[in-house]
Amino acid sequence: MEMFDIVDENGEPTGTVKERTKVHEDGDLHRTSHVWIVRDNNKGGLDVLLQKRSESKDSNPGCYDISSAGHIPAGCGYLDSALRELKEELGIDASSEELELRLIRRISYSDIFHGKLFKDNQVTRVYKMKRNDIDIEKLNLQKEEVEEVIWMDYEECIKAVKNNTIKHCIYLEELEKLLD
């Protein structure tokens, strides 16, 4: 059972801890970390690593998404959680020095997934990690979370998100912050 800290508007724990399902039923404010992995490409630009979410995910199943993301368990911090998710979802070992904080943002939405109302209300820290040594064929994907990963040219990804030419749950604001 996953337990989350309920947080204030600044992402600071309030002292209340709730189970994941209840947090999303009630729309409680909680924390997540997002990591965007980029690499240099042969066009003089960047590629971005996208993961395709598993069809069994409780939100946005089958959508292309951030390289790695996750909710922050009660008592844990943003950075530790980001590093843990990289390892769990993709099998990537990284250090905190490799993660560059790009954005702190608030995400709030509700939708129906698998016939149930899902209310997401989160404070998110968005990180960028540049690594030119990642071979997606050698990644150890967590199949319960990630169906596949792909490298996509950054500019093509921006266009695909803007024009909805791929099934995705990518926030354009985050993607655009990778080059600032």
Commentary on this structure:
The chain is an alpha+beta fold and 180 residues long. The protein has 4 helices and 9 strands. Strands 3, 4, 5, 6, 7, 8 and 9 form a 7-stranded mixed β-sheet that branches. Strands 1-2 form a two-stranded antiparallel sheet. Strand 1 and strand 2 form a beta hairpin. The mean pLDDT is 93. Keywords: Hydrolase. One of its GO terms (cellular component) is cytoplasm. Pfam families: NUDIX. It comes from Clostridium neonatale.
What's the SSE pattern? EEHEEEEHEEEHH
Annotated CATH homologous superfamily? Nucleoside Triphosphate Pyrophosphohydrolase
Fraction in helix? 10-25%
CATH class: Alpha Beta
